[in-house]
């Protein structure tokens, strides 16, 4: 066998060698065809991967747009909340001030012996509570002996008191 092949190489005119050549080319062609087919398969796979990546990228872009929209909405909500919060704080401040005024008047009235009518009047007129109220400033209602620190309040009260007494 080995001898036989050596003989062929030594003599290129042997017919067997000429037959062998086209077979060798065919092998090369077959081999190249396999390689081309493999490359085509690879290219197809890469194309599919590229399509997949493109679709993922467009989904991602859509998510980014949604996130940006949500962020814009959040900013609007945040601004509204800040405005509402400031309004609430202002309201609480006003209510606290009114409450403190009422408390001051109630304590003033219990000290000076006035009544709720006077307290309400003081609040609506936004008078400063009189803390220097002393016995000498106080005028008494002749009917019920409640004390008042100013003439106007006393007059109003006495009128009411008279009405009640008549009823
Ligand atoms: Zn009275």
Task: Quickly describe the structure.
Residues 29-105 form a coiled coil. With 167 residues, the protein is mainly α.
Please explain how this structure is put together.
The protein has 167 residues and is mainly alpha-helical. The protein has four helices and two strands; from the N terminus they run αααββα. It has helices at residues 2-10, 15-112, 116-124, 151-166, and strands at residues 139-140, 147-148. It has a two-stranded antiparallel ribbon. It starts with a helix and ends with a helix. The mean pLDDT is 80.
The proportion of strand residues reads: under 5%
Contiguous low-pLDDT stretches (5 residues minimum) are none
N-C termini distance = 149 Å
Mean pLDDT: 80
What multimeric state do the chains show?
A: single chain
Strand order of the largest sheet: 1-2
Bound molecules: zinc ion
- Roughly how much helix do the residues carry, as a percent range? over 70%
The biggest sheet amounts to: 2 strands, antiparallel
Gross geometry: rod-shaped
- Could you spell the SSE succession in H and E letters? HHHEEH
Strands, total number: 2
Structural class: mainly alpha
Helical segment count: 4
Which radius of gyration do the C-alpha atoms yield?
A: 53 Å
Keywords: Coiled coil
Protein name: UBZ1-type domain-containing protein
Organism: Caerostris extrusa
